[in-house]
Amino acid sequence: MLETLEQYDQSLFLWLNSCHSEILDFIMWQVSGKLQWVPLYLILLYLLYKKYGRSIWVIIIGAAAAVTLADQISVQLFKDVFERWRPCHNLDLKELVHTVNGKCGARFGFVSSHAANSFATASFIGLLLNKKILKYLLLWAILVAYSRVYLGVHYPGDIIGGAILGTAIGFFIYKGVGLGLKRINHV
Prior knowledge:
CATH class: Mainly Alpha
Structural class: mainly alpha
Helix content: over 70%
Oligomer: single chain
Order of helices and strands: HHHHHHH
Low-confidence stretches: none
Largest sheet: none
Shape: elongated
CATH superfamily: Phosphatidic acid phosphatase type 2/haloperoxidase
Number of domains: 1
CATH architecture: Up-down Bundle
Number of helices: 7
Mean pLDDT: 92
Number of strands: 0
């Protein structure tokens, strides 16, 4: 059963990764970057400040906790434990994988830290703001996660695992921050 899932994952990866062009190479490289998203983070920070005012510091701590947990758990409890080779490091697939700018990343890829981090951010902040923004942030997280498959550094299964992990972390931090905000506002 596990072998069958792995074969489906590799087949889906090869199909998705084969759909590339020069313009998409550039776009997906940008989508996968970190600094490119600073304007989005600043807009979200502004919206959070408008809604929560001086309590924003609790939300900033919560966001930092969500991303830190997603990032560290994805590496320490998944990548370092499962040791699943990234597609661009998999000797059976390496020659079939389209990468961009010769970048492959570290050896192991399950689960995707990019997916975990973006889904933790999207779910945490989206739940704090409103359902419409949550929907757009989840679309952003999906785009970031897909860019990792496009760039040849993650299988779809890595992305799904990262998305589940990140969403769960974002939700639990949201619940914790909600309790903190209630305490602060009732003091």
